[in-house]
Amino acid sequence: MDGTADDDLAGELLALTRQLRGQLQRHAMLGAWAAPGGASARIEPVAASAAVDDAVAADPLPDDAVPVELAPAEPPPREPGSPPVFAAPVVPVAHNAVRDARPALHLVADDLVVASAAPGRKTLPQIRAELGECTRCKLHTTRRSIVFGVGSGDTPLMFVGEAPGEQEDRRGEPFVGPAGQLLDKMIEAMGWTRAMVYIANTTKCRPPNNRNPEPDELAACMPFLHAQIAAIAPRIIVALGRPAANQLLGTNAPISALRGTFHDYARATSDGVRLKIMPTFHPAYLLRDPDKKRLAWSDLKLVMAELARLGITAPRPAQG
Fold this sequence. Notes:
Radius of gyration: 24 Å
Low-confidence stretches: 29-76, 81-93, 96-117
Largest sheet: 6 strands, mixed
CATH superfamily of the largest domain: Uracil-DNA glycosylase-like domain
Order of helices and strands: HEHEHEEHEEHHEHEHHEEHH
Number of strands: 10
CATH class of the largest domain: Alpha Beta
CATH topology of the largest domain: Uracil-DNA Glycosylase, subunit E
CATH architecture of the largest domain: 3-Layer(aba) Sandwich
Number of helices: 11
Shape: globular
Structural class: alpha/beta
Helix content: 25-40%
Mean pLDDT: 77
Distance between the termini: 68 Å
Strand order of the largest sheet: 5-7-6-8-10-9
């Protein structure tokens, strides 16, 4: 094949790529959480390039964009007696798929460069492999298991507690004791399940006698939690108890002053989407003081309302 033909194919590929990126930009700007599964109408490459360049020059997706229901496009008029044209099916996508697709294609000069959605973002398996059989702090001398985290790696909702307890240390899974059973009920009351959210701790090893983690232990372990948050890219984190809330927010405020209000995550996210923190009481505290369950439930109802505002529907009906 001669060089002219190669150039023609490269030009057509570049034009198609620009059209695809333009479609993704338009869906993202409208807050769409699904995209048509069928083919879209072809447009002239020059027009497509100009449209995409204009879209990229503008703010491609507001941080607080609210998903809207898109009306189906009107089909073109057809000749009498011709067969009807049916709309293409809508294919659901993951909660962060449109957001992650936004920066996935970059055009540099006339070359197409394929990049990851968030350069430097690691996957959960990569983070776990990097953690290894951690000996970064003194907790490794007394632990039984590393308690990494559990749940869905693609979820808009995450829960973070302080440190594993005795049963968590024995099983290698967070929140499996009495407090974990209560947390499961709280999650289910919100219309989710343990497997549909992600649960983690500020530290991955149990401190002796369930004491509070010390500063050097948190300094060694918090980077792995931040990496987990970056990998999952949730929209809301429920911080369970003061220690978890303080670590995520960079504050020393008491939980009574933090709960009931959304706060911004202390670290910037790689994709520019706001990550909100809702501090609330730790389930272990609720077991000691059941009267506070009403306040904790009001915090979780705020979380449910915010997810709904973002266009994220709970997989199951919520209670209350």
